[in-house]
Amino acid sequence: MPEPVNLADVARLAKVSPATASRALSDHPHVAEATRARVWEAARALEYVVSPDASGLARGTTGRIAVVVPHLSRWWFGAALEGLSDVVREAGRDVLLYHLGDAAARRAFFAELPARRRADAVVLLGFGVDDAERARLERIGVGIVSAGTRIGNHPSVSIDEYVAGRQAVDHLLHLGHRRIGMIVTTDPELDPGQPEGRAAAYRTALADAGVAHDPALTVSVPWSPEGGARAMGELLGLSDPPTAVYAHTDEVALGAVGTLRRAGLAVPGDVSVIGIDDHPLAALTDLSTVAQPAAEQGAVAARMALATLAGEPVEPVATLPTRLVIRGSTAPPARGVRGVS
Description:
Pfam family, one: LacI
GO molecular function: DNA-binding transcription factor activity; transcription cis-regulatory region binding
Strand order of the largest sheet: 2-1-3-4-5-11
Strand content: 15-25%
Order of helices and strands: HHHHEHEHEHEEHEHEHEHEHEHEE
Keywords: DNA-binding, Transcription, Transcription regulation
Structural class: alpha/beta
Domain HTH lacI-type: 5-59
Number of helices: 13
Protein name: DNA-binding LacI/PurR family transcriptional regulator
């Protein structure tokens, strides 16, 4: 098999430097027309295929945006990645995907990062970084954007976690529930600094309604539907179980619903359940939730990254709205329940 043709081969045939060849092939304005024509003639004669790395030599860019995600199988990350990819593709750029997967992959990624300037911007989807990781990101000298979290003073897009939590808990309070459980989801390996907003919303909503906070009604579990099922089991084991449950994500909420039904309890007749996200399964299972625009967060992050590359002003913080979606998993508590006359 013949060796692939590279930019140096084109430059040699056209009798120009590789930098000039790169500028000519990328239609840089500061290249004489005769030189541009000669370079393109050489490229056609050699059947040269422009690579992102070669075409970026003259302008110091690669034409790519790196996207770093901790999960690929979870709904939010997939939806955000799809929204981002659509915008980047329409702009004629390429996406370079890094899947961290677990704590070891995360450590390896940040350890090797300074030597891997393979993109013009980095977008982090749905996880925070510590000071050392942020310093490594900043060291490679590219634009940094985050979606679903904040990274220092770099541009970011997210929902207001506190507002989303209040929408969910206030809905249960307005229905008349006073004994409300909360299932907190954690992902300690990949994001030890979980956003506090959803939990803070629960505590302040109860306080504003004059309801005493009972720590026994809060259960923390690793993220998964199975975790939600286990947490619901713990709440049902209390001497005074909740009449409603607020889960931090829809998938965890659906795990809780499964446990309730296996226990012979009706949802919402005996216990109401609400989540956050508006996962596609929420509509199919009639789960009340707070919808967040996952794909739009990815799209906004992509536009921020592209604007950064173009040297255009970027809004430092974009907060997208959430909305309460009332379905069949929430209702007023049954009469006779404590606190209900």
